[in-house]
Here is the input.
Amino acid sequence: MAKITLENIRHSYTADVEKSGDWALKEMDIVWSDGGAYALLGPSGCGKTTLLNIISGLLVPTEGRVLFNDRDVTDLASDQRHIAQVFQFPVVYDTMTVYENLAFPLRNRGMDPVKIKHRVHEIAQMLDLETVLDNRASGLTADGKQKISLGRGLVRDDVNVIMFDEPLTVIDPHLKWLLRSKLKRLHQQVGATMIYVTHDQTEALTFADKVVVMHEGVVVQVGTPVELFQKPNHTFVGHFIGSPGMNFLPCQLMDGAPTFDGNRIDVSAEFSVPDTAERIEIGIRPEFIKIADQGLSVDIVKVDDVGRYRIVESRYKQHTIKLIVPEGVSIPVDKAKIQFEPSNTHLYADHWILT
Ligand code: ATP
Here is the structure.
């Protein structure tokens, strides 16, 4: 297993990048620690595959270096990097048995047959494949086949990193959560460095100890699920993580204090706004706004009961403010006063957090 360092990486698919400024990855300086469970999360086109291909050696970055345990592998081919990859669609040999599929990567590397048997059974047990080891892979369902793919990724013990590229896409929704929690347990058992690529926040947050959030070719935050929730580094993280996402309201400074349409808003910490800032915003998650006797006067527009709580959509002038109201708290019919919890109210300048 390895620590992976991406040092000053930039990548462009355009030859004349100086002219076009067309970077698929704009700037990247990140360390994936040995044995970590990471999710690489972001919407389509943000650069996830590009980053994955740079780690696996399918792409040589336009700028910067890739290090595995401090060894420079930037120009090393994929097959020399000892990486296991699990893709969206299962990669299995239909004519082989499940056992042979799992044994294949080990036989290929000339491992001793006794050791192969032991390792295949170990992995099959982790993935609940023991009872079908002698079956032909062709007879398995899509999720059974994807389990084989996962097994083929996990079976080798000489890999530096295992990368999963949207591995649950073809899995039935009701089985997804089962495999998701299984993968998390597998990480704990195997202890390998794992990178799980997805655009689905639930998958990312359940699998990973650390989530790397990408937006338009930039890593905007590396954090635990709790950090991403409580203190989004960038407005994109606020929008993208959470359901509903964070509220952002325009902010003006009056005598150095943040205000929203003339209403003073207390924020989590001291701050200083860069002279160059063009846009200042107040960010507050719906979970940290409460209905009170005093506060900002809003109109209640819509209430959605989602079981254990209600999602309330309120309006202040042209601004929509969403709040999450627990069961048992009454919600006025058309007008309410709301308060923001200062310790969870953050300030953003040009999308980046100040407090
Ligand atoms: P998806 O989830 O849709 O796969 P992604 O997050 O993996 O998206 P990338 O595929 O890495 O994103 O794409 C990042 C940017 O680079 C996009 O603007 C994309 O159009 C561009 N791009 C990707 N591959 C190529 C290529 N081979 N040639 C030119 N541009 C490319």
Observations:
- The domain at 243-353 is CATH 2.40.50.140 (OB fold (Dihydrolipoamide Acetyltransferase, E2P)).
- The CA atoms of residues 48 and 249 lie 30 Å apart.
- The longest strand covers residues 296-305.
